Amino acid sequence: ATWCGPCRLEMPQLVELAAKFKDKGLQVIGISVDDKPDDIRQFAAEYKVTYPMLVGLGQDALLRSLGYEETVPISVLIRADGTVHSTLLGITTTEDWEKRIRELF
């Protein structure tokens, strides 16, 4: 969500992790839970988000399938085979992110 303070804090970290693990096949994708496309584009430009951001507004079934229940940020790590590795609520350290990302490969 563009209004989410912890989400804003986490985004530069995710941009760095996406670049660091790109050659291993990591793809970071953001989903804004309640913003319109124009708001997301403006926000992504302002915060220099380099990964794709999807519109979650009106996609309640998809969001619920990922474990979203009104708490942001929520992060879901999905293996290449499509299975969920882990779900994180709130923000975490770069060290923890890197550990979890390495477990994906």
Overall description:
- The chain has helices spanning 5-20, 37-46, 60-65, 94-103; strands at residues 30-32, 53-55, 74-78, 84-89.
- The termini are far apart.
- The strands form 2 sheets. Strands 1-2 form a two-stranded parallel ribbon. Strands 3-4 form a two-stranded antiparallel ribbon.
- The chain has 4 helices and 4 strands; from the N terminus they run αβαβαββα.
- With 105 residues, the protein is of the alpha+beta class.
- The chain is globular, with a radius of gyration of 13 Å.
- Helices cover 40% and strands 16% of the residues.
Helix content: 40-55%
> Unreliable segments (pLDDT under 50, ≥5 consecutive)?
none
**What is the 3D shape?**
globular
Distance between the termini: 29 Å
Q: Helix count?
A: 4
SSE ordering: HEHEHEEH
Number of strand elements: 4
Strand content is: 15-25%
**What is the topology, as strand order, of the major beta sheet?**
1-2
Taking Cα atoms only, what radius of gyration do you get, to the nearest Å? 13 Å
The largest sheet is: 2 strands, parallel
Mean pLDDT: 89
Output the structural class: alpha+beta
